[in-house]
Amino acid sequence: SYPYESWEVATWPTCERLLPQVLAVGGHAERLGVAGEAAGWLLDRVSTYLRERGQYRQAKPIAEQAVAITEAALGPGHPEVAGRHDTLGRVLQALGNLTGARAQYERAVAIGEAALGHDHPNVTTYRGNLGLVLRDLGDLEGARAQLERALEIRQATLGPDHPTMAFSSNNLGLVLQELGELDGARAQLERALEIGEAALGPDHREVAVWRGNLGFVLHDLGDLEGARAQLERALAIDEAALGADHREVATDRARLGSVLQALGDLE
Q1: Rounded CA gap, 116 and 79, in Å?
Q2: 109: how many CB neighbours lie within 10 A of its CB?
Q3: Which of 94, 138, 207, 248 has a C-alpha 20 to 30 A away from that of 52?
Q4: Is residue 229 classed exposed, middle or buried when 0-12, 13-18 and 19+ CB atoms within 10 A define those classes?
């Protein structure tokens, strides 16, 4: 009964209602020695839900438990284990443990490539996440190489308009921005927004993320009114989806505040 797409806001009421039962079941399964692949999958979905709600400290031990259970059930080289490492990496990255996140993503890529091949969509996702943590660690050229490779594989295997292309374009745009290649960054982020809106609709959370990132690049380019428009729309989407007290809403407000300051609207 637990939703697979536990990152989607629409599933959160169900995820929250079932959370105590899931944790009880997982605990019993481990104590009884019967926690297998299904238990690992279930805990992975729970950690994803908690991460998306901004509850990173609660998500971390559950993600670690999911890795351990899945590895014990399937072996360390199974592709499902790669996915568990990727999930744990995302939690560690959100907590600011960038070195730990990098190790998890590198493990996910290594397992995925060995089990599924270099061009598998899951491996491309892990590679993209590795690129983002390399960016956070300050290795911009390493990040660029990983993200350009992910974009290239996705375009070749899925086509230029596939929804996942939006994620690749967004991620590459962020790195180009930090490298000072603002026009290239703008092009990638505009492409991400175009694909994302067509695939997910204008009010989806990911669309808000891409609008916010585009707004920040427009700010750097000096297009303050354009930046303001993007950031105000991102804030409205995130507040409606996540509530006023979520971390992402705080990020939106901080970005919008910097644009308003640059526009001279100090109040």
Answers
A1: 7
A2: 23
A3: 138
A4: middle
Q: Which residues of 6-19 are buried (b: 16+ CB within 10 A; e: fewer)?
A: bbeeebbeebeebb
Question: Rounded distance, CA 55 to CA 156, Å?
Answer: 36
pTM of the model: 0.84
CA distances from 91 to 14, 63, 108, 132, 156 (A): 21, 8, 14, 13, 30
Both tokens assigned to 254: 């901080």
User: Residue 45: helix, strand or coil by DSSP?
Assistant: helix
Contact criterion met (CB below 8 Å) for 203 and 167: no
Q: What is the pLDDT along the chain (267 residues), one digit of tens a residue?
A: 999 999 998 999 999 999 999 999 888 888 888 888 999 999 999 999 999 999 999 999 999 999 999 999 999 999 999 999 999 999 999 999 999 999 999 999 999 999 999 989 999 999 999 999 999 999 999 999 999 999 999 999 889 889 889 999 999 999 999 999 999 999 999 999 999 999 999 999 899 999 999 999 999 999 999 999 999 999 999 999 889 998 889 999 999 999 999 999 999
Distance between CA 121 and CA 157 in Å, rounded? 8
